[in-house]
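Same chain as my last thread, 232 residues:
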Amino acid sequence: MIDIIPAVLSKNYEDLKNKVALMRGIVPVVQIDFSDGIFTPNKTWPFDTGGIEDFNFRKILNEEEGMPFWEDLDFELDLMVSDSISNFDIYTKLSPKRIVFHLEAVGDKEEFKNFLEGMDVYIKDAIEIGLAINTTTPVEDIFPFINEVDFVQCMGIEKIGYQAQDFDERVLSQIKSLKDKFPDLVISVDGGVNFETAPALINAGVERLVVGSLILKSQDIRETIFELENLV
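reply #2:
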């Protein structure tokens, strides 16, 4: 059975709460998209409402409250941001199950590799680290980092930071190249996932599908996720 991870892209905290609430009791993990308006043109919570000074964001950081419905769900943070390394400690305070860095956003690649290698052992034990790659980036660029991450997230769209974008078929060759070289590597695909594209992605070798608009626009979220989980 394929893992389905709903993706939530929210403008403000109330929007985040409302969307996350839809997933309670249906899936164990939800991906929260963080876009800062720098790495991607789009802005999401908390960057659209004050950044790290956003009222609700600060309350979570100060442990006055947790992420929405944290008792029922784990979170995967997709950091489509320019400050993923400099503010890494801040993001870990959101108590995520997973954090996804974007290769194109991390700056100097050697410094990034040193950052991954020097990451605190407690953090590595507590949080799965993923590395995302765009369809326009040569897949070989990610090879030097494979031993330092738990999984790779291939983007299924060219214009990241937005939902309901057209599927980019170049991701299929990326997946196959990664699986040929690293057969045990866990691969997620984020973007462009629907009932037409999912079978090809599964056949290419992905273990996880990150799904946004298809789920959020569904009339029956539970049934939609069930059907995706059981595609062959």
